[in-house]
Design a protein that fits this description.
CATH topology: OB fold (Dihydrolipoamide Acetyltransferase, E2P)
Largest sheet: 8 strands, mixed
Strand content: 25-35%
Structural class: alpha+beta
CATH architecture: Beta Barrel
Radius of gyration: 19 Å
Number of domains: 1
Helix content: 10-25%
Number of strands: 8
């Protein structure tokens, strides 16, 4: 059975970190609007294969979306003049260690993404999903032209959790907080 290739779809590498992970319940974006599921995908700059796939998918979305991008203008803006989703963590997130030496993409969807483990079994326990886990993401790129804003956006399809990571955002897991039961102080004694 042959797979039909979609040039605007990318599966990230296995070392992508999921940040600002919102996949259990959709959130209303700042400023209002339709609730969305979302994630910020942190891709190490060393993962050049994924970065090249993303650049090619952005180009494909640009090529496919020329009519939309042109809108009422006489010409289609050049890709480098448009807003695109691949961003440099060293420039846009200075001081945030999680984004150091990495690219990042914010992906979202109005429909709930599928989330599976390394064996492709659905993850049903929401406590398994937190900002900082490591995995792969299925994302798609598309052109947009809305309210004077034009560019390429990133849609979130599905996620695969491959490993636990360091929780981001200062939030610790209960399992970690209470792992050490060697208190010096006898609480009841």
């Amino acid at each position: 059975m042959s797979k039909v290739s979609n040039p605007t779809k990318v599966i990230t590498g296995k070392h992508t970190v999921f940040s600002y992970l919102t996949v259990n319940e959709p959130k209303v974006p700042l400023g209002g609007g339709t609730p969305k599921y979302s994630v910020s995908l942190i891709i190490p700059k060393s993962d050049t294969v994924t970065v090249e796939k993303i650049k090619a998918a952005i180009q494909a979305a640009y090529d496919e979306g020329q009519g939309k991008l042109k809108g009422n203008s006489k010409t289609v803006p050049a890709l480098e003049d448009l807003k695109t989703p691949l961003r440099d963590g060293d420039k846009e997130r200075k001081g945030d260690e999680a984004y150091a030496n990495a690219w990042f993409i914010n992906a979202n969807s109005t429909t709930k993404p599928g989330v599976v483990d390394a064996d492709r079994n659905p993850i049903l326990d929401s406590s398994e999903l937190y900002s900082g886990i490591i995995g792969r993401a299925s994302i798609s790129f598309y052109a947009f032209n809305s309210n004077g804003n034009r560019g390429i956006a990133c849609g979130l399809n599905n996620l695969q959790k491959l490993a636990d990571g360091t929780p981001l955002g200062g939030h610790s897991r209960a399992e970690d907080d209470f792992a050490d039961d060697d208190d010096d102080e006898d609480f009841l004694g």
